[in-house]
Amino acid sequence: MENISAQITQVAPLEHYILLSAVLFSLGVLGVLIRRNVIVMFMSIELMLNACNLLLAAFSAFHSSAAGQVFVFFIMIVAAAEVAVGLAIIVMLYRNIHSIDINELSKLKW
């Protein structure tokens, strides 16, 4: 197990993983803040979760510990549940208001 983590850190330094993770997380935040499409917002949230997963896996490999990989596994489970529930909500919204624009949700007020 140590040989694999040593090979990973030799391929690219830890700083590259941190930079890539920061860029991916920033793109996800921009996607949530700028876009008004619910599906794009969910994809941006998934991008942020994957940026965190990449960072946890990189630190786990750098420190030769499996703790980060365990956290990645649980984050992937939560992300899968979020996608299932989120897509069900989007389908119900589309059935009610025939749009997936976040600004159209004001039609759902009582």
Summarize the structure.
The chain is mainly alpha-helical and 110 residues long. It has helices at 2-11, 14-34, 38-62, 67-97.
**CATH architecture label name:** Orthogonal Bundle
For the report, how would you describe the main beta sheet?
A: none
Please give the domain count: 1
Structural class: mainly alpha
- H-E order: HHHH
- How is the CATH topology named? Helix Hairpins
| CATH class assignment | Mainly Alpha
**What is the arithmetic mean of pLDDT?**
84
Choose one word for the global shape. Answer: elongated
Strand proportion, as a percent range, falls in under 5%
Cα distance spanning the termini: 58 Å
Secondary structure: number of strands: 0
Radius of gyration: 18 Å
Number of helices: 4
The proportion of residues forming helix, as a percent range, comes to: over 70%
Q: Regarding quaternary structure, how should these chains be classified?
A: single chain
Low-confidence stretches: none
What does this structure look like?
This protein is mainly alpha-helical. The chain has a single domain, classed as Helix Hairpins (Orthogonal Bundle), CATH 1.10.287.3510. The chain is 79% helix and 0% strand. The radius of gyration is 18 Å and the shape is elongated. It starts with a helix and ends in a 13-residue tail after the last helix.
